[in-house]
Amino acid sequence: MCTSYRWTDWAGYYAVCSYNLPNDSEYYAIRHAAGLIDITPLFKYEVSGTDSAAFLSRIMARDIRKLDVGQAAYCCWCDDRGKIIDDGTVFRLDVNRFRVHSAEPVLAWFEQFKRGFTVTLEDITESIAAVAIQGPTSRDILKPLVDFELDSLAYYRLTAGKLAGMDALISRSGFTGDLGYEIWVENAVAPPLWDALMSAGKPYLLQPAGLDVLDIARIEAGLILNGVDFHNALYCLIESQKSTPFELGLGWTIDLDREAFSGQQALTDEQAGGSRNAWVGLALDWDEQEALYVKHGLPVQVSTAAWRGGVPVYEIKGSRQIGKATSGTWSPIVKKNLALASLEKAHAQPGTKVKIEYTVEYQRETVTAVVTPMPFYNPEHKKS
Amino acid sequence: MTQVSQSFHSHIPTQTFDAVIVGAGHNGLVCAAYLAKAGKKVLVLEQRHILGGAAASDEVFPGFTFSVYSYVVSLFRPHIIRELELTRHGYRVIPLECTFTPFPDGESLTRCGDPQATRREIARFSPKDAEMAPRFSIAMTKMAGFIKHLIDAPAPDPASFKIGEIIKLLGLGRRFKDLDADDRYLFTKLMTMSATEFLDLWFESDRLKGPMSVSGIIGTFLGVRSPGTAYVLLHHYMGEIDGAFRSWGLSKGGTGGVSLACARAARSFGAEILTEAPVEQISIKNGRATGVVVKGGHEIKSKTVISAADTHQTFFKMVGEPHLDSEFVRLLKRFKYRGSSAKVNLAVDRLPDFSCKPGEGPHLRGDITIAPGVDYLEKAYDDAKYGEFSKKPFLDIVIPSLTDPSVAPPGKHVISIFVQYAPYHLKEGAAQWPQKREALGDTVIDTLSEYCPNLKDSILHRQVVTPWDLEQDVGLTEGNIFQGELSLEQLGPFRPAAGWSRYRTPINDLWLCGSCVHPGGGIMGAPGELAAKALLKS
Question: Is B236 in contact with B214 (CB distance < 8 Å)?
Answer without folding.
Answer: no
